[in-house]
Design goal:
The complex is a heterodimer of chains A (114) and B (111). With 114 residues, chain A is mainly beta. Chain A is built from no helices and 11 strands. Chain A has strands at 4-7, 10-13, 19-25, 32-38, 44-51, 57-58, 67-73, 76-81, 90-97, 103-105, 109-113. Chain B is an all-beta fold. Chain B has strands at residues 4-7, 10-14, 19-25, 31-37, 43-48, 52-56, 59-64, 69-74, 83-90, 100-101, 105-110. In chain B, a hairpin with a 5-residue loop joins strand 4 (31-37) and strand 5. Classes of the chains: A mainly beta (114), B mainly beta (111).
Chain lengths: 114, 111
């Protein structure tokens, strides 16, 4: 199956700083990638759709100025959490659809804001 | 929007038991996938099954699209089967359309 990587796998940052998370499709190209957020013992919540070469599409209630998304190439999307606060602490996961329409997920990034 | 409901929400079984997990969806879909989220958070693809039946070892899945439900069967459970099982659907025809997750079934297999 297709492989999606994420980096870093975990990060601890201080309140007020910014954190960048990378999502890469390793063996296929993805014009679209998706960013999710997951709180403990809850399901995945879609935050935004990352579109290569154009602006991301954000879900209702997600602050676009806080969660900056850049889809710089057909294999890389980045999510930057700006001015992070403790309530931004969460598990962030990206995904990309393969040519066969199957969705593949990265291993996730655990963010802790102190 | 489409609603995806999974049942049961929690399931505790003894090793060796069989189980059936259910996913109901409120509207027609063009894609349905089952995932297993392991204790480290990684989502593992189990089945891509918009319709019909598939089997992979001890796991099998059936989707009856006309009746808007899918079932995941786990036979002879092992402790490594523990984790959360998610059903996710896509309504759009385009592979870049977003998918919607159910709330998951948390499975705990006792040794």
């Amino acid at each position: 199956g297709a492989v999606v990587s994420q980096h870093p796998s975990w990060v601890i940052c201080k309140s007020g700083t910014s954190v960048k998370i990378e999502c890469r499709s390793l063996d296929f190209q993805a014009t679209t990638m998706f960013w999710y957020r997951q709180f403990p013992k809850q399901s995945l919540m879609l935050m935004a759709t990352s579109n290569e070469g154009s602006k991301a599409t954000y879900e209702q209630g997600v602050e676009k100025d806080k969660f900056l998304i850049n889809h710089a190439s057909l294999t890389l999307s980045t999510l930057t959490v700006t001015s992070a606060h403790p309530e931004d602490s969460s598990f962030y996961i990206c995904s990309a659809p393969s040519r066969a329409y199957e969705q593949y997920f990265g291993p996730g990034t655990r963010l802790t804001v102190t | 929007g489409i609603q995806v409901e999974q049942s049961p929400p929690d399931l505790i079984l003894q090793e060796g038991a069989n189980s059936t997990l259910r996913c109901n969806f409120s509207d027609s879909v063009n894609n349905l996938q089952w995932f297993h989220q392991n204790p480290w958070g990684q989502l593992i693809n189990l089945f891509y099954i918009p319709s019909g039946t598939k089997q992979n070892g001890r796991l099998s899945a059936t989707t009856v699209a006309t009746e808007r439900y899918s079932l995941l069967y786990i036979s002879s459970s092992q402790t490594t089967d523990s984790g959360v099982y998610f059903c996710a659907v896509r309504q759009g025809l385009n592979r870049d359309d977003k998918i919607i997750f159910g709330k998951g079934t948390r499975l705990h297999i006792l040794p």
